[in-house]
Every structure is written in structure tokens, then in C-alpha cells.
From TrEMBL:
Domain ABC transporter: 4-235
Alphabetic keyword roster: ATP-binding, Nucleotide-binding, Transport
Protein name: ABC transporter ATP-binding protein
Keyword Metal-binding: no
């Protein structure tokens, strides 16, 4: 049984005057512990599919199942990390990372200790009593990651979590997130417009084509890249080859777009 299975998903947005099909015939599966990326031009339905998998949107037709169960039917199965950290500015860092546990009525000592240890493991020691405004953008995104991991979700959804950061911070966080997810054997889906990020972090890359959104092609990242950190992968000789391959496919999808 696949860990995550999306089967023949279609989704149409209806208004009083029109109907727009955002996704068509989406079928894919993701293995436990795998890291996959959804890559493609704007408007190809990547975030819509992410929302369907997260159980936030019910597809017009088709199904999404996690370990054989319909998504959205069990609490804390799926964690979501967005472009903005969305930390509450009036709450301390500790209060922010424990928010998910509080909402799910799971503020037990072992869970609290787990969250605090995560904060230290991710390089944020002695920041518990600080407020978000006292941290840099990269540090706040680390806090957001800890908040997501604290509820011990089986699947992580990463919706362009590094796009608002400066390039150096982005590269550092790519390594940090990748290493953290591997250490905890977490399954993750990344939505990104960044070809390099998708290659460096993923086991597989699903390239989406628009109008309506569908999977144009799937790329399997070579083993020699998957065994490296994202930063190291970007400097490997195989990286340039697959980058050029994906770039050409993107150009074939949107020939007038500049990537």
C-alpha cells in the first residue's frame, strides 16, 4: 500500500459566470520518507493540489488517501509550512511552537519536551522567551518548522517556504530542512518555482503543465545527488545536466515565459 496515493483527481472552480478547471487527471503516489516537489509555471494548480492533499479542499472528483485513509479525516496527520512564518507576534517563541499541541489538546510533558528539544536541535537554543520580532527571517522560519514538526505529522507540506528569504539564508535553510526531515524519516511535498531548489532537495520532481493543470513529466533525481545535502548537490556535475533538461521542458510548456 502506498503511503500517499492521489487517484484521478480533477478540480474545477465555479463562479456565477464561469467554470475553470484547475486540475485534470492527477494520479501519483509518494512513498514513506520520500521528498517530492511540485514544479511548474504559475496557474498550473500546484497549490490547489497541495490543498487537496492537505484536506483543505475537496476535489471535484478523484481521491487523495494517506495510508489508505481519506485525507482530512484524522487530526495531526499533515503539517503545513508556508512562505510566511505566520508566528503570532504577541506570543513568545515557546508559545508559538506549542500552539499546534495546544489546539489539539495534546500539551503533555513529553510532547512539550519534544518540541523544546527540536528547537535546540535546529540551532535555536535559549530563544524560548523571545518574541518573533527579535529573530531574523531565517530564524523565524526555523521556528515555523519546529511548530510544524512538534505535532509529529506523518506528511509535511512545504508551500514555497524559502521564497521570501535572501539567497544565503535560503540555501542554509534548504540544508537544515532537508537534514531534519531525513533524520526524522519524514515524508514531504514541496511546491516551488525554483528548478534548482526542486532538484537539490527532492527524490522526484513532478513537472506540471497549465490549462488545465496536469503532470507533464516526472523526473527521478539521480542517487548521487539524493545522497548529498542540497548545497552539495548544487555543486555536483550531475546537477547541471538535469537542470538543463528540466529547463528545456519548462520552456516547451511556456515558450514565452522567462524562468
Amino acid at each position: 500500500m502506498e503511503f500517499l496515493k492521489v487517484d484521478d483527481v480533477y478540480h474545477t472552480y465555479f463562479t456565477k459566470k464561469s467554470a475553470v478547471t484547475a486540475l485534470s487527471n492527477i494520479t501519483l503516489d509518494v512513498a514513506e520518507g520520500e521528498f517530492v516537489s511540485f514544479l511548474g509555471p504559475s496557474g498550473c494548480g500546484k497549490t490547489t493540489l497541495l490543498s487537496i492533499i492537505a484536506g483543505l479542499i475537496t476535489p471535484t472528483s478523484g481521491t487523495a488517501q494517506l495510508e489508505g485513509k481519506k485525507v482530512g479525516t484524522i487530526d495531526n496527520e499533515i503539517g503545513y509550512m508556508l512562505q510566511q512564518d505566520y508566528l503570532f507576534p504577541w506570543k513568545t517563541i515557546e508559545e508559538n511552537i506549542l500552539l499546534g499541541l495546544k489546539i489539539s489538546h495534546n500539551l503533555k510533558k513529553d510532547k512539550i519536551d519534544y518540541a523544546r528539544n527540536l528547537l535546540e536541535q535546529i540551532g535555536l537554543k535559549n530563544v524560548d522567551s523571545l518574541f518573533p520580532k527579535q529573530l531574523s527571517g531565517g530564524m523565524r522560519q526555523r521556528v515555523a518548522l519546529v511548530r510544524t514538526l512538534a505535532t509529529e505529522p506523518k506528511l509535511l507540506m512545504l508551500d514555497e517556504p524559502f521564497s521570501a528569504l535572501d539567497y544565503q539564508t535560503k540555501l542554509n535553510l534548504e540544508d537544515l530542512v532537508s537534514n531534519t526531515l531525513k533524520a526524522f524519516n519524514k515524508t514531504a511535498i514541496l511546491v516551488t518555482h525554483d528548478i534548482g531548489e526542486a532538484i537539490a532537495m527532492s527524490d522526484r520532481v513532478f513537472l506540471f503543465s497549465p490549462s488545465p493543470g496536469h503532470i507533464h513529466k516526472t523526473f527521478h533525481i539521480p542517487k548521487e545527488l539524493r545522497e548529498l545535502t542540497p548545497f552539495q548537490a548544487r555543486n555536483h556535475e550531475s546537477y547541471s545536466t538535469i537542470f538543463q533538461t528540466i529547463w528545456k521542458e519548462l520552456e516547451s510548456i511556456e515558450p514565452e515565459e522567462q524562468y
